[in-house]
Amino acid sequence: MSQEPPRAAEASPIESVDRTLRLVELLRERGSLSVKETSEALGIAPSTAHRMLATFVLRDFAARTGDRRYRIGPAMQPDRAHGPSMSQLRKAAEVPLHELADRLGETVQLMIRRGGNIMFVDGVEADAVLRVTVRQGDQMPAFASAGGKAILAEMSNADLEELYRNGLPPWPTSPIGSIGRLKRAMADVRRAGFGTNFEETESGVVGLGVAVHGPAGQVVAAITTAIPASRFKRPAMPGIVEALRATATGIESRLAGGPHG
């Protein structure tokens, strides 16, 4: 009995893995690649090469340069410059978060990005009777959160398109429902330098957030304050953002091994 040759669908996953490994080798060998060079070296369409490189950027295996080329990303560096571990991040944020909560008198939280979502990893709850409860381990779309917006704003529009290539997940209280709306919102966040959430994660809660960067300059987390909408006053925003930025700087210093003062 003759044996049937393997179907293309069965061979495809292996070919995809091989292609990915070859791209890793190419980045290491050449230092940087363009979409055209990647396409020619791997024998794939330019659109496929672009998607592969964009995915590498999202996973920190590559980084985009100013001349539209791609170089080795922090995840491929031997010093693991792609970011701190969860325990390192929590440890670096512990004291600064408590100091921020005392300064603002409001709930403050630490979050990281997980794909298109943010995940709450730590926080300090306010002492006030009317307060926002700390979330831990919860996830929600990054574009619904002030901190998530601060993280997403550091991504290019091309990276945002790749991240949400299957569309934005619905979130009942978020006004952002399309990739076009997301791009416009992120442009606003970039100009402001911080993210806002006016009852977008849940009704009755206002949030402000800023990004936290690792020693290599890449965004690794965000910190936010969550305030009951009934207590929030817009004129207080500049002072709150200043406190958030000072706290982010403190966390960054600890991550870099600087003085903890």
UniProtKB/TrEMBL annotation:
Residues annotated as domain IclR-ED: 68-257
Domain HTH iclR-type intervals: 14-74
Pfam families tied to this protein: HTH_IclR, IclR_C
Protein name as it appears in the record: IclR family transcriptional regulator
SMART domains: HTH_ICLR
Alphabetically ordered keywords of this record: DNA-binding, Transcription, Transcription regulation
Cited PROSITE patterns: HTH_ICLR, ICLR_ED
SUPFAM superfamilies: GAF domain-like, Winged helix' DNA-binding domain
